Amino acid sequence: MKYSSAVLVGGAASVVSAGGFCADSVQDAIGNFFCPGGVKQIKYDGLDIPGKYRAVATMDASGACTYEDRPYSGPIAPYDEGLSMHFRGPLHLNNVAVYHPGKGKRDAPKAAHSKRHGHQHLHKKHQHQHQQEAREVGDMVVATIEGQVVSWLNTYAGPTADAVPVDVPAATTAASIPESTPSESEKPSDKPSEKPSGGNSHKTPSSNTPITGDFVRSAYYSAADGVADGLVFLANVGSPGVSGTWDTVWGSSLAYVDEDGVSAAASPTVLKDKLLDDSQEIAIFSDAPCDESCGATRPDTVAYKGFEGASKVFVAEFSMPDSGKTGFNANMPAYWMLNAAIPRTAQYAECSCWKGDNESPLQGGCGELDVLEILSSGDDRGKSTFHFANGVGDSHYLDRPVNGPMTVAVVMDAASSTVSIKVLDNFDFGTSLTSEQVQDMVADEKELNLFSLMTFG
Question: What average pLDDT is seen over the chain?
Fold first, then answer.
């Protein structure tokens, strides 16, 4: 994303399916090839190729940046690691939901949500929501908190063995809890906590769960309701004294972003129902603060985990209106995902795991997936591309949703080593999905002229 004006696929990529290319493709002025007519689904098969990438080992404000090799293997790797979601304007983001495999209960009552609106900040999860017994993901939790009975769907699988508490607010609106004034020990720090800047404590997620059970919603955003749960909005707008940082070496770090998506905020804030303009980018991370498992992060950045696991579902509803602007990155909206380690270090500077070592060209980066990226000002064709050692891109495209919202599901399925990007006709952003619903998202589009298949290899 935004690392070059054209999509260039490295020599390490090998496409064995002819479905991704077409004899009558047309090349645009900046070198991108497009097949005639948009599709509704682009499917990538065979994402199960071991490799390694250069992970940042240390970085500091002086400009020092060191690397270490990090191997990966298994279905969906390295995209089984934590991913962050990124959006660039002109774009109106309506809804987002992320789902993970769990013990979903379709008939369980929905959790009560307090509608936090755009001008309000999200709050730390209540200090007294202690679980008195072991619960599995998907179990319904009922508790009495300050005299009120509340319930929610459990999406917490428990701490990792090497987790280190980090004093960063976790965003939630999952329970209707009365406002109260926290004690000094409960108040979040005004300054982002310093995160580990080095070491070999990174853990690669090992959840290769096939689609055999219900999926539980682990994160949710509704612009119309002003509700965000299980996620935080960040942007590269670091401002010392507010959140994140800035210097002349690395530029702006990640920071909490205000309701307009423009400036740094002091704590997690809900993005309001608005159009992001051409110059704006926002990122969505999980609401789990980083611990040692995140690996190296930029000092003084705001650091949260991405959405982890080899099987996961991302659904986003958005529109990309035509702003009519021209110039660098103008009228070029995009929706993409990154290995969350990239923005936690330096998304737009030379200290991240995004690219490989030039001395070893087959050693690629840690992973980027362009879901729908407009590559030239005013174009209405959205390309999809994988960036890593076995990266590949498709000459087919998704139609840019200029005149109204479009819902896109990205399903990563460990059982089949498949990633599916599919335009959905309807979706209700409910609290869980059946395995049949997820399989339907992965299933090949019935109209063959609206379907494209690419293969890693």
Answer: 78
